[in-house]
Amino acid sequence: MFKIKIIYFLLAYTLRGTFRQRAALERFQQRKWRRFRKIVLTHSPFYQELAQREADLSDFPLMNKAAFMANFDQINTLGIQREEAMQLALQAEMERDFSPELKGATVGLSTGTSGTRGLFLVSNTERAKWTAMVLRRVVPLKLFKKQRVAFFLRANSNLYSSVQSASLEFRFFDIFQPIGQLVQALAEFQPHILAAQPSVLSAIAEYQLAGEIQIHPSLIISFAEVLTTEDKTFIQNTWSAPLREVYQCTEGFLGVTCAQGTLHLNEDIAIFEKKYLDETRFIPIITDFTRSSQPIVRYELNDILVEKTEPCTCGSCFTALERIEGREDDILLFPGANGEMIKVFPDLICRVIARSAEGFRAYRLRQIEPLVLQLELESANFEGVAEKITNGIQSFLQERGVLGVTLRCVEGIQKKAGEKLRRVERKIVPN
Ligand SMILES: [Zn+2]
Question: Sorted alphabetically, which Gene3D superfamilies does this protein's record hold (predicted)?
Fold first, then answer.
């Protein structure tokens, strides 16, 4: 039954083809939205009233993670209580058995780098849609040849292990295991496709360069963290295989790179409203038509996306992104001379670091006090590199009118196993 569903959705997505005209896409989205409002939202106590009187999307309330969790019981369409879902999710996480279901849905716990723990529900149908979409958009299906896919994940969930078919063999690697063991298992598996977060891909690349393993993937997929230009170059140089970036979070499968290497938003499965921060940077607010057990309506994400100013040559009219810049929470904030706040986008800092020095690969920069930055750095020439980066950052900040910042340099990155690596992190909360 599950496979039939996947095939059904796979066909539907394939037949849909490529949208080349923005107007046609918008008509399609409106149709999907009306259908979603009628079929799904009328079953959500939270949205029922608005849905029944056929309110416009813009009349629906804006949602964020905190409000989404606070109204969990009312939003979901299955009548699931937050307490019971949380208990099940915690138990699954502890026993590392993700099969138990609640009213036909599996319950997952999102990592929540910002502190709020998120709960998400996924039904069988939603899983089939997700799988079909990933197969269609990310994995090139080769007939008559079984492809081995190595998937590195924070925690197993039925969502991922379900992608097992005649032409694909999925192997799941739990990133909580020591990396040394994982790479040995990976070498034995010999994947055609390697999918992991960029920091894990980089770590595997280091083993390959050191000659400790030999794998030859023909496709590399990066997801879950922001892929920086440095990581991208490093990974691509190691394997000389195409690298596809998937923009995915617990809130959905939001985007993927096309054949031209441009990251496009999946605007046929969700409406993306854009909250602009400047001319090209925006925060996406998503309404996802594929989610029915826990509807995502006008949900404001934490990400800063940078729009491409020119259309992509692949011909798709889906919004093309220059890059995913990082999280809104990670914009560095400094007190200016006249009491104003000076914002520094994470990506700008990454570029300053990249052009200030070489001879290093991994770093993390954290704002730990309003005027104190901590630079964690891995380099054979730690002192020399740290000094160059410090000078680079200081003059960059001074040009922007930020004075009196202290930079502390620490050798090595203190990262917990399985933790997402954010290159630039703001640890202070603005008042
Ligand atoms: Zn494109």
Answer: N-terminal domain of ligase-like (3.40.50.12780)
Residue whose entry in the numeric block shows the structure tokens 């290093």: 360
Render pLDDT for 37-96 as a digit per residue (tens, 0 to 9).
999 999 999 999 999 999 999 999 999 988 999 999 999 999 999 999 999 988 887 777
Per the listing, tokens 């990400």 go with: 303
Instruction: Tell me how far the alpha carbon of residue 330 lies from the centroid of ligand 1, in angstroms.
Output: 28
Select the more confidently predicted residue: 347 or 310. 310
Q: Where are the domains of the chain?
A: 331-426
Q: Which residue has the higher pLDDT, 235 or 417?
A: 235
Q: Rounded to the nearest whole angstrom, what is the distance from the C-alpha of residue 206 to the centroid of ligand 1?
A: 30
- Give the Å distance between the CA of 308 and the centre of ligand 1: 11
CATH architecture of the domain with range 331-426: 2-Layer Sandwich (3.30)
Q: How confident is the model at residue 397 (pLDDT cuts 50, 70, 90)?
A: very high
C-alpha 247 to ligand 1 mean position (Å) = 14
Distance 315 CA to ligand 1 centre (A): 6
Cα 314 to ligand 1 centre (Å): 4
**Is the pLDDT confidence value at 395 over 70?**
yes
Number of CB atoms found within 10 A of residue 109's CB: 20
Distance of CA 331 from the midpoint of ligand 1 (Å): 28
What does the pLDDT read at residue 374? 94
The 10s digit of each residue's pLDDT in 355-379 is 898 888 788 999 999 999 999 998 8
The per-residue pLDDT for range 94-108, each reduced to its tens digit, is: 777 777 888 988 887
d(CA 125, CA 306): 32
C-alpha 19 to ligand 1 mean position (Å): 11
